[in-house]
Amino acid sequence: MSKSSSHPTDWSTSESNNGMSHYDSSYGEDTPEPPAYLAPDVANREEKAVTRSKFLVSLVLLLAVSGAATATYVLMEEEQSNDFAVVVSCREDYHIRSYIVSNPHIAMLILSIGNSVRSGLDAYSVFISSEVKADANSSWPFVTISHYSKKSEKISELFGFKRPVLGMSPLIRQDQKDNWTSFVLESAPAWYQESLDNEGNKFTVDELMNVTFPFVHQYNFTDNFNPIPSQNSGPLLPYWYKYPLEPSGTGTATTSYDFLAAPSVADLFQVSNLTLRPSLGFNKNLNNSEGAGFQWVVDSQIVQPITENGEIVGILWLRLPWSEFFDNLNVDSLFGMVAVIRSSCEIITGEGIDTAKEISYLIGASGSVYLGQFDAHDIRYNDHLVSRVILDIDLDEDQFPEGYCLHKLTLDLYPTKESEATFRTIKPLAYMGVVVAIFVFTSLVFLLYDFFVGKRQRKFMDRIVKQDQIVSNVFPTAIRDRLYESGRKGSDQDCLLDPLDSGLGSGAAPLADLFPETTILFADIAGFTAWASAREPAQVFILLETIYGGFDKQAYRHSVFKVETVGDCYVAVAGLPEPDKDHALAVCRFARDCIKTMNDTTLKLEVSLGPDTSDLELRVGIHR
Known about the structure:
This protein has 624 residues and is of the alpha+beta class. 43% of the residues lie in helices and 19% in strands.
């Protein structure tokens, strides 16, 4: 079987090198066009498979980068939260300890107030008692203490508060009230002057004496805090010496104010009177701050008894305002925190016992803010708690009178949302960005690699398609497919159809089939040799291309297989490669239409190829 093609070549009108046109030759309006070349399905399937693979890889990369970025962010956030908890705990503990270290005497207050009271106030009370004994002109309750302001200033440095209030009150009987009034008027100016000289106050002695009420008194809360004589029927405890020296919140001097009229101090005095030991209170009082008016101030009050011959003759009264303590606490690097002071007993106010047992402060670098009588910390930071016992007299509860409570103060420190926000950084986002950048870079490299690979594959595929197109024009589809299959089995070459390797001699069986029922047509152009000798090669090409193109269309129309063309000879056969029982009839009809096509074509080309072109005739021979 000769090599041939069941499909004609391109049928479009074109121009030859010399600019002359060749024309399409079709027979009848209903002559079907030969089908255009179609690339092998395998190419389409492979291209779709590659596209799906790219989509899947892109989806996997997208999911991977999303998962990795999310995991990185979550892990870094968790690590930052853990670091925050550790750092806050360590820093709060560090600042409490560093505050103690930088103020060595504060250790006695924060770590054990009982020891500080015994070592500080107890020593001071003994000193005062000894000084009174040594002064022949002094006796209780009418005592004077030289340089009280300077001595109290030194003692106050032990407690770590910027301005603690340290006062001294003698215990007097009811029958000594009148003598006490005379004693105050006589002795107060002298110790006022001593205190003013030491403290450099902006007041004068005369100004202080003008606001001093020498009789033992208390304040009438229902009448604008005006002083009235003390209503106590038993012993009295008038305020005498005070450091620092300044008027009270009511604008009057505190001298001769009866401490026993204040419930908070009265209770502490009862405990100390029974135990002869210091007593501790947790109190809330109204304080008239300059420029701010009356405000509630929470403090701790400590009563230290002054004894003589085993009996109380007076007290030292120490007031520790917690707002000042927190204002002095260096917390610049703690970004602010909530401090909750908890007491084992109810808070005592100026009007009696309150049910609250805790107070809260917001502490920052600029100072502290009183939040109220409740636990104001955010419960989300319960795990960040740093707790310390700060005030504990360490007395046996059995020594307390019935109905009295032993105060024990605990300081709980919590971070705030604002402090955590300032602690947090963009580190999680930065790490997440790095992960995303790595994946993006990897994806870009992949896409760049895929671009070059795809470009190479397209070139290779174009080569394969062109090769397949040539093969399809030479062989019938069935033969082409058998050649490909034979090439796959018998050759490892890149090109399945090696022109130098026919397969013969390599063990491969030749592609040969027997078709007993066929009809062959032989056609040539009568007068072609003489006509072609008088024409240019381009004109000869136009004639043959146009005529054979028309024959190919007719061959397709009648299912006739073109075997070959040799010069002006055209060979075709019917009955192969697909068997046809009407092969002879098909060839006869094909021959008729080819003659008609020949006549029509030469008549059309006569103008461009010469007047004798229409003289050419087609000779046809049929063999069955």
